[in-house]
Write a structure and sequence with these properties.
This protein is α+β, with helices and mostly antiparallel strands. 51% of the residues lie in helices and 7% in strands.
Amino acid sequence: MRVIGSLGIALCIGALALANVGAHAQSRGKQAAQTEFEEEVVPQRYAANPEVDAFINDIVARDGFDRNELQKVFSRVVFSQTAARLAAPPASPGQKNWTNYEKRFLDNTRINGGVRFWNQNATALSRASKEYGVPEEIIVAIIGVETIYGRNMGNFRTIDALTTLAFDYPPARNRSERMALFRKELENLLLYARERGVDPFSIYGSYAGAIGIPQFMPSSIRNFAVDYSGDGKINLTTDVADAIGSVANFLKQHGWQPGQPVVWNIAADRGSQGLAEAGADGQPEPHWKLGDFIKAGMLMNEPRLDVGSALDTPVLIVDLPTPGQATQYRMGLTNFYVLTRYNRSFFYAMSVYDLADAIKAARAP
């Protein structure tokens, strides 16, 4: 699940959603009660809690909430040990493995499912692509990576998950920053519920608070979700058109460049690969120019690219390591950077791109 918006994530992003979630939330609430998988919840942990009370005071002053009502809300919120456990960094971080990561997403389930999803929603996808300038296959691939086209949207009660991570984030190097971000998402969840007139306890999603088919965080719901079906409501959980339009709008608002490439392939010769390795500094925003590498002797494996006219193009180097193998390198452009706004991971953005290509090829006549 992806953290998008202020968390970077579309989590997501994507990224990282659902206005008028009431109908969805009622049915999913019953489902969650039947398929509960949290091994421990702690009630009353956030009642008369000094940190929570300070948070309540802040958003009462900033957003005009009723203090008594919020105190009642947090007296009902429960600590989710599962959310805290899943958010914890691994005790011994493993090596990044691009080959294994991509296998999780570039599989028949997502490719064939993407073709079906595209065929079933061709009208909305075509319209969104024309309106927002984002290729249909990119929209489909993001939804495929995030939830397998709505199949896996999460069974966590969102207010429990966000409150747990806002006030009981597990030990981590950046714990205070993460808690601050989750408190902002918790505030946005409460604002969203108030704006849409829904019960915040009726909203379900991922352990990190991402909601709906595209796994939008509450801040992204409020800033980027759209009513694309035209029914006067935004519902990212059961309205596929709204999910499609919202993903496209998210990418457009984060700077998607219509008609421009996402990545370029670098030649496989040792010199070009060495230059790619030297330029792979992990920064997701394009901060080199293509000409910087061409002048140093890099060759490109892009037959249709007019290198001479593209020397000023802003680029970054995408490194994709796999233990025991040579690291793969690609050259990312602005649209690659936009994909990382949905989820701040080179692996994520590259998987979306490769899955999009695979779905488009599988759908071709």
